[in-house]
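Backbone-to-sequence.
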């Protein structure tokens, strides 16, 4: 679901993963027509990093 949000409303993705400052910057970038594509790529990349961080944290918790 977050991937769909990242493609349609990239700035909203940052708010769902707890990065509101990045969300505001992304919204400003997205307001320009040229900035839409970089904002979408940035949101998808950040979402991937968020999922990786969650997996690592879960693995470390199981180990302890």
């Amino acid at each position: 679901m977050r991937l769909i949000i990242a493609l349609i409303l990239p700035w909203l993705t940052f708010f769902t993963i707890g990065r509101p400052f990045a969300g505001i910057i992304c919204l400003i970038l997205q307001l320009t027509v040229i900035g839409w594509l970089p904002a979408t790529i940035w949101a998808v990349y950040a979402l991937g990093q968020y999922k990786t961080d969650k997996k690592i944290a879960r693995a470390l918790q199981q180990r302890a």
